[in-house]
Design brief:
Radius of gyration: 20 Å
Helix content: 40-55%
CATH class of one domain: Alpha Beta
Strand content: 15-25%
CATH superfamily of one domain: NAD(P)-binding Rossmann-like Domain
Shape: globular
Bound molecules: nicotinamide-adenine-dinucleotide, thymidine-5'-diphosphate
Distance between the termini: 47 Å
CATH topology of one domain: Rossmann fold
Number of strands: 13
Largest sheet: 7 strands, parallel
Low-confidence stretches: none
Length: 356
């Protein structure tokens, strides 16, 4: 492996694979991608860089401390960008065990082995090492319609097993900075969308159901608000924090794109009306079906990203209108990818969640 290397965990998932593709196009350092390949991980996302000599995939579990210790000693990364997690709120409601194991115990294992590795470094390698922890706005809980957006100082109030496990991991990361001086950075980001998102999440699910004439399930009254960010903008923000962020700090990342779920779905449907006028059901919004709400469903998330904007000079490039059009087009052009991820375990999940 090359001298200048970063370790990415969870790089075969949605955001991690977008991050690696962007990193290899924009930066010089090599990338080791450590991923367990759960249902959400797909090495085919990285097919375009598989033969790049700066890229290497290692299948493994972040809970496996021996494996991580050896990996760090062998490959000597200058930074760790930690995406690996169980990430789907609905799955965390059906079965929280894996969320506690990976998000809490896994992050703990990674922190412990990073601390041991970093303690053994000297000079510039020691001073420049960074551990960047990727987290979510969901740790802050739910906002009322007129509340100000979440800042880095908002009190943590997680409401789902997913957000509670992420909140716990954020606290561990913070503690490793204050107790051991490990040079950590934490980013909390709002809802992402874009290429390679697993189609159990709202936006790809709506696109795929709409084009095949299946009901589009909207939980509750569809008035829940999320702050949508195009995934490439999130990846740029992470690269910015990695290179310029102050250690021990957290940075909120968001798109300033607050939208009600029903409006997101209608926008996708009208985009498809234009691009796919011959689909089985047009207008596509005739497929909308209101279904039983998610238990404990957070009403509204909104991120105040002014700290990263003013301190580090990051700003999103995409509006929701430009990002959603790119996303819809990507799913229409990548039928083979969709086929490969919507097999066995995906179908079981859809049957369990939606009785489809
Ligand atoms: P994802 O579910 O698509 O990908 C997660 C990846 O982690 C998968 O490739 C999976 O195989 C891997 N993984 C799971 N358990 C593992 C383990 N024990 N060891 C090694 N690898 C393991 O998730 P995503 O949407 O890409 O999210 C990535 C990170 O960003 C997560 O930490 C998530 O909390 C955070 N985040 C996501 C969003 C979003 O909208 N998707 C928003 C804010 C923050
Ligand atoms: P999701 O993509 O699961 O992200 P998160 O729960 O992390 O915000 O869901 C986004 C929003 O869409 C959320 O308010 C739940 C809602 N939703 C539906 O209405 N129907 C669905 O089938 C799904 C998956 C989500």
């Amino acid at each position: 492996m090359q001298a200048d290397t970063i370790l990415v965990t969870g790089g075969a998932g949605f955001i991690g694979s977008n991050f690696i593709l962007q990193w290899l196009a924009a930066e010089t350092a090599a990338v080791i991608n450590l991923d367990k390949l759960t249902y959400a991980g797909n090495p085919a996302n990285l097919a375009n860089v598989a033969s790049d000599r700066r890229y290497r995939f290692l299948q493994g579990d972040i809970c496996d401390r021996e494996f991580i210790a050896e990996l760090l000693i062998t490959h000597r990364p200058r930074a760790i960008v930690h995406f690996a997690a169980e990430s789907h709120v609905d799955r965390s409601i059906h079965g929280p065990d894996d969320f506690i194991r990976t998000n809490l115990n896994g992050t703990f294992s990674l922190l412990e082995e990073s601390r041991a590795y970093w303690s053994g470094l000297s000079g510039a390698a020691h001073d420049q090492f960074r551990f960047l922890h990727v987290s979510t706005d969901e740790v802050y809980g739910s906002l009322g319609a007129n509340d100000p957006a979440f800042t880095e100082n908002t009190r943590y109030a997680p409401n789902s097993p997913y957000s509670a496990s992420k909140a716990g991991s954020d606290h561990l990361v913070r503690a490793y900075f204050h107790t051991y001086g490990l040079p950590v950075l934490t980013t909390n980001c709002s809802n992402n969308y874009g290429p390679f998102q697993f189609p159990e999440k709202l936006i790809p699910l709506v696109i795929l159901h709409a084009i095949s004439g299946k009901p589009i399930p909207i939980y509750g009254d569809g008035q829940n608000v999320r702050d949508w960010l195009y995934v490439a903008d999130h990846c740029e923000a992470i690269r910015t924090v990695l290179s310029k962020g102050r250690t021990g700090e957290t940075y909120n990342i968001g798109g300033r794109n607050e939208l009600k779920n029903l409006d997101v779905v209608r926008t996708i449907c009208s985009t498809l009306d234009e691009l796919r006028p011959n689909d089985p059901v047009v207008p596509h919004q005739n497929l909308i079906k209101f279904v039983t709400d998610r238990p404990g469903h957070d009403r509204r998330y909104a991120m105040d990203a002014s700290k990263i904007e003013s301190e580090l000079g990051w700003k999103p490039r995409e509006t929701f209108e430009t990002g959603i059009r790119k996303t819809v087009q990507w799913y229409l052009e990548h039928e083979a990818w969709v086929q490969s991820v919507t097999s066995g375990s995906y179908r079981q999940w859809m049957a369990k969640q939606y009785s489809l």
